[in-house]
Each structure stands twice: as structure tokens, then as C-alpha cells.
Amino acid sequence: MRSPAILCVVLALSVLPSVAADTLMPPPIARTARVDPYKNFKFRVVFDGRAVAGFDKAVGLPATAQSGNAPPVMLYHGVTRDTAFEKWIGALHAARRYQRKDIAIVLQDEAGRGVKRYKLHHAWVSKYQGMPNLDANANEVAIESLSLMNEGIEID
Question: Shortest CA distance to 91 belongs to which of 48, 60, 54?
Fold first, then answer.
């Protein structure tokens, strides 16, 4: 006949693995595809139906759609040969009125596909700095800036 102490050890060992497996091990985690956030440097500005290259920064985009007079959106871009914005601004000064245009700022994923679009309705230039600060001792890109007022922003 077995002693009670040995019987307790045998019973404990026979029960312990199932208890440990059920209570100490976390349940298996299902493997899902990793979803990274979008990069803030991947965007394009669409003006008159075409993407305008060279924009470095867009500031003032809202988290939700805005109607009526929305806050201004600031755009910064390196000085290039593309003169679309300069011609638009020149037309504003010549006509002495605000020529309004729909402008889209499109956030892109790593593959360059548009994933979020901010549509600025009836936007006009309220401030423009065409000639950047020039410095012979600097090693920076020449940047123009413009402030766009608009009559509302729609987010797709």
C-alpha cells in the first residue's frame, strides 16, 4: 500500500500540467497583417486638375470637415520652374479680385496611392511670399509660402 504522502504527490503531478497549461499560458494570438501609420511627407497638391510638384509642407488641415469660412491652410514649396501658382497669383493682382479655385491636398501611402483627400472649396491666396530669404552661407532649399483661405474643407 502506498503512503498518503506519495499518493498526494502523484495526484498533484497528474493534475498540475493541465492546470498550468490552462491558467498560466496566454491564449494564442491570431497573426494579422501589420498596419503602419501613413507618413506625413507623402502628399501631393492638386490644382486645376493636375498634381503640382515640390510642396514640402501643408499646415492647418483640420481633423474634421469645415463649412463656411474655414481657417487658412499654409502651403510651403521649393522654388521650381513650375509657375502655375505664380500665374494664378499674378492674375489675382491684375484683376484686383480674388480668383477662387478648388484645391485638393492628397495624403498618399507608401505606394503613392491616395488614401485621404482634403478638398479646399473656392480657395484663394490671402498671403504669398514668393521670394524666400536668400543667404549665401546657407545650404537650404529656397521655399515659397502661401496662405489659402477657403469656403470649406471636405475630407474624403
Answer: 48
